[in-house]
Amino acid sequence: MTTQRTSGRRKQAMAAAAVVAALLTTAACGGGDDNKSDGGSKTGAAGFDAANNKVAQASLAKKGGELKFASAQDADSWDTTRGYYGMAWNFMRYYSRQLVTYKNVPGKEGAELQPDLATDMGKLSADKKTYTFTLRDGITWEDGKPITSKDVKYGIERMWAQDVLSGGPVYLRDVLDPKGKYKGPYKDSDKEHLGLSAIDTPDEKTVVFHLPEANSDFLQMIALPSASPVRQDKDTKSKYMLHPFSSGPYKFDSYSPGKDLKLVRNDAWKQSSDPFRKAYPDTVSIKFFTNANVMDQRLIAGEYDLDLNQTGMSPQGRTVALKQHKANLDNPVSGFIRYAVFPQNVKPFDNIHCRNAAIYGADHVSLQTARGGPVAGGDIATNMLPPSVPGSEGQKYDPYESAGANKNGNVDKAKEELKACGKPDGFSTTIAVRNNKPVEVATAQSLQASLKKVGIDAQIDQFDGSQTAGVIGSPSNVHKKNYGIIIMGWGPDFPSVQGYGLPIWNSKYILDSGNNNFAMIKDKSIDKLFSDYTKATEESKQTEIATQIDHKVMEGGYYLPFVYERFVNWRGDRLANVYTTNAYSGQYDFVNLGLKSTK
Amino acid sequence: MTELSKSEAAINEPSVASPAPSSFLEVRDLKVHFPTDDGLVKSVDGLSFQLEKGKTLGIVGESGSGKSVTSLGIMGLHTAGQYGKRKAQISGEIWLNGTELLSADPDHVRKMRGREMAMIFQDPLSALHPYYTIGAQIVEAYRIHHNVDKKTARKRAIEMLERVGIPQPDKRVDSYPHEFSGGMRQRAMIAMSLVNNPELLIADEPTTALDVTVQAQILDLIRDLQKEFGSAVIVITHDLGVVAELADDILVMYGGRCVERGPAEKVFYEPRHPYTWGLLGSMPRLDREQQERLIPVKGSPPSLINIPSGCAFNPRCPYADVPKDNVTRTVRPELTEVGGRHWAACHMSQEERERIWTEEIAPKL
Amino acid sequence: MLAYLIRRLFAAAVMLVVVILVIFSIFFLIPKWAGVDIALSFVGKQADPASVEGVREKLGLSEPIYTQVWMFFKGIFAGRTYSSGGDVVHCSAPCFGYSFKSEQAVWPVLTDRFPVTLGLALGAAVLWLVFGVAAGVLSALKRGSLWDRGAMVVALSGVSLPIYFTGLLSLAIFSFGLKWIKAEYVPIGHSFTGWLGGMILPWITLAFLYAAMYARITRATMLEILGEDYIRTARAKGLREQVVIGKHAMRSTMTPILTMLGMDLGALIGGAVLTETTFSLPGLGQKVLDAIKNQDLPFILGVVLITSLAVLIANLVVDILYAVIDPRVRLS
């Protein structure tokens, strides 16, 4: 691989290029768009934030046309069992169906579940351990054959074959088979390869789940695409991701990894069997880019309709868009919290007062600015529960007054805590940060600067971002490298405290490798709360526990939250029936997007 | 030393400008100046001479004396293709066979190059194009001036190679310059120069880059060919030994000017300029045992931008103080006749020079 | 000449092996020394021990490095079968590895993307040779003139401005602004004019950078050659100036230009990363960038190999051309 000859001053030149490109785009557009921020525009864009938690231009959606996604990154896998990217889960609903799925409505309600392949939300036994689902009539595979209970079971069983089908979420496996007795369908001695005892398929239309322990999030788990049905004769194992066999309104037409993907209408799918997927366009395509700036330029130029990743525009594209095309932008909360975490196995962060010193010493406004400011970065996060997760109190719960009195840092308070920690003169430590995220490096630098004021001398260590799991996922390596502060972020797999906090706060998730509980939280009361949560059936009780867990985490001083992340996402002029949903943390509900014109 | 050939009237007194000279080649008051950032470089500053067909003129001088510039001036190569460089300023007259070259149409001069006047260069390795065969280069030279097909031209090339003494010419014609030895290369160069039977041949240091033994062969070759083709030849060299063998007349240049000229035997046996004495002193002699080291002319050649006032040679001349009133440093000496067709430019009186030559210089040589 | 060729080919093969070994070391050994488990970078957010083990098994990570290298070489000639956990993937010869990230054999992807890069490199090369060399010759002949100064300023800017700048600029002006060109790659088999339309901006952008370099080198070389004795000889023969420049001087000037061309083409065929990413051309360069971003080792290895091969072949071709142009080289 080679790069073409360029000067060593490439960075400056790139910056210069961006400026010029921005100016040119501005000039080329000649102010064709008006700047009325909210009232919609001549080009047909619905207005700034018009699709954020509300539906924009639903009535303009027409049947037909090609919906064009652009993406700077391919999915980790299009195999329903293996994908873990949020955008992949969202997109998978085009070609896969689940027993239950999210409602096709914007915002908070969009995270609520409704029956999909099943006729209802399942019959729950009295002991809350048995769920029985009946399949709808008229549900078919792309070759017209009906989807059976066995297909559902087989699809879920694939989750056990982690040695072949790695990458996806395994909540169901842990819930249905916590002892790991089942070896997966590929090593299954059952002649139908349906040996998983936790699922019964008494007939073609009935699926029965037997849970060893009740779990209040069980429905959330079977709503994940990893619980989609897979037909055994179509299972190409690791190659399934190249052409998943469709149960949804669209099917794979062509896919060239890293280049493009095209879905066409699945003629076997019947609208009558699926009341939630609108399936407006005839074709859905994705074009993959390697350069996010170029992709943003093309979005702005109208060549593509939206960004598949839904993780915000690049800084240059965003600047241009905010100035010229504000009506085409939405500014949703992503569900991610960006934060610094203090591993307790690195001294002196074993002492809560030293952790508190760092939290009080931090300048939250400058951290927010480093993240991109209130619009592109997000609001200052005051606790660790994302706003999209039930139980979140948002900035109302602010134990460190991070968004209030101490938002610019409180040196006196920090010094007090240092004294209490036995380090009145401060101490030195290391901040670990991924080198492939410029924003994170910027926050590390901001944090370094404010900590210096209180006497904490922090060195920044940038590590290879693609090796994250290996570098900071190993507690012994974290200890060895003296990583007292790790810059990270986390988002919910499904909107619940369990789907968000379990891997990062529960003591049993402390792993020797691939660890995500970086703070090494071993708090029995937190573990107990999680266990209570899974048993709780009432929603109000669940919400209450979620809030309690958040409080416990904040009181432990394990985290310094930066922002409740926000994105600035592009919404093309052609899009209709657009809305963000909490189900996918502020992403648009892809499967219900339509086009205003079929051309 | 071999007997010097008797010269006839190859060199006449510089004549007053007359439009139609009778000589085959006549150079009149030639000046070649190069403007540079440091000032005007007067490489040739008023040079005149004549040359008849069948005769050989040796131009002798140190490097930077203007001898090569003179030859390139005659060939018209100062004005051709001097891209972007500041053009040489050339004045005077160069008459070749009735044509005045400096005022002639450049394309006409180009057509004369190679055909009526040809040149042999000092280093045949660098003067021959390394990427083309000897044959191709000779063929090209021939076909510029002769409308013949390649085959005929090739025959001619082989003929010429044979003539200059290259063995197996029909094979060597397809060799590249680097496949030849130095002497062979110079022979090939000569073959190329003579392929069009030029009437004037200029050999610029033809033997300098060659071994001593090969030098003699090349000089013999030039002499033989001159007899055969009857061309006029100008041999340019810093080595009096070279012209001793060849030249009918000798012109000694110093600082862009002629300091002495005359028939070869006069210049050799009765030189009348201290610089010529110096050159003779620094000449290796084959006929005498070398008893002391060669005596080079002391000092270095003059700057051509600031040529010393008076006699240009005065800073290096051991006799600069012989003439009275510091005249060597103030007045430029004119060429004056010191004998039959023999001129020298020196402030010392004839008698003094004769005395110094016979008493002080000649015995040491 | 034949012995020379064989020697060069052998050296090239040895180089390739060394390259493979180095790449293997970089990706497998160095993380090991640094105490990082690379298998972890192949699994998702929830690093399940079974999936980590699966990756190890598939990639043969638990095998000693020499076995891994041997398997790789064997795969090139005999094909290779990967199996783990009841899943069997066959990668037929020539197997340059198999990516479990995208479930593709490396070789077909490389051959699919190669024509894009080749078309880009060759098209641009034609442009930059024509314009670069012409501008360089003109500059040399008119040294010090307004043309010369102007051309060299443009050349300097061409050399200093990265593709990121010129590429985005040309896209912004011609594609997004004036909308003259729809900058989208169309395979040449689908539509020739579409292909031309998609390639024209990348060609010009890439050629601008290189033409600038070629103009500078042409000018410098030409000036040097014009001072050579054999040019004076050519004039002394009575050759027309056009022939002196066009034949005698040009032939010599071509030597360094060809050397450069060989190197540049070799390097570009390995992937014009910046141009391809800027213009979203699905070539090797874009692939390798993707592969690096995704830690898709087999592709990185494959593209590096292709690049090395391209550079080695380019070197070989240059050496042969050299011998054709310059007879002095033939001796040795």
From TrEMBL, chain A:
Pfam families, per database record: SBP_bac_5
Keyword Cell membrane: no
Gene Ontology CC annotation, any one: periplasmic space
GO molecular function, one term: peptide transmembrane transporter activity
Gene3D superfamilies tied to this protein: Dipeptide-binding Protein, Domain 3, Periplasmic binding protein-like II
Keyword Protein biosynthesis found: no
Gene Ontology process terms (BP): peptide transport
Residue ranges of domain Solute-binding protein family in the record: 112-507
Keywords, alphabetical: Signal
PANTHER family: ABC TRANSPORTER SUBSTRATE-BINDING PROTEIN, PERIPLASMIC BINDING COMPONENT OF ABC TRANSPORTER
Lineage of producing organism: Bacteria, Bacillati, Actinomycetota, Actinomycetes, Kitasatosporales
InterPro entries xrefs: Peptide/Ni-bd, SBP_5, SBP_5_dom
Protein name: Peptide ABC transporter substrate-binding protein
Signal peptide: 1-30
UniProtKB/TrEMBL annotation, chain B:
Record's subcellular location: Cell membrane
Membrane topology: Peripheral membrane protein
GO CC term (a single one): plasma membrane
MF (Gene Ontology): ATP binding; ATP hydrolysis activity
Chain positions covered by the region annotation Disordered: 1-20
Highest taxon, organism lineage: Bacteria
ABC transporter domain segment(s): 27-280
GO biological process: peptide transport
Pfam family, one: ABC_tran
Keyword tags: ATP-binding, Cell membrane, Membrane, Nucleotide-binding, Transport
Entry-linked SMART domains: AAA
Main subcellular location of this protein, as a coarse class: membrane
Family: Belongs to the ABC transporter superfamily.
Record-given protein name: Dipeptide/oligopeptide/nickel ABC transporter ATP-binding protein
From TrEMBL, chain C:
Span of domain ABC transmembrane type-1: 114-322
InterPro entries from the UniProt entry: BPD_transp_1_N, MetI-like, MetI-like_sf
Compartments in which it is found: Cell membrane
Primary location: membrane
CDD domains referenced in this protein's UniProt entry, alphabetically: TM_PBP2
Transmembrane segments: 9-30, 116-141, 153-174, 194-215, 257-279, 299-325
Keywords assigned by UniProt, alphabetized: Cell membrane, Membrane, Transmembrane, Transmembrane helix, Transport
Domain of life: Bacteria
This protein's record includes keyword Membrane: yes
SUPFAM superfamilies named among the record's database cross-references: MetI-like
GO BP annotation list: transmembrane transport
Membrane topology: Multi-pass membrane protein
Record Pfam families: BPD_transp_1, BPD_transp_1_N
One Gene Ontology CC term in the entry: plasma membrane
Similarity remark: Belongs to the binding-protein-dependent transport system permease family.
Name this protein carries in UniProt: ABC transporter permease
Source organism of this protein record: Streptomyces colonosanans
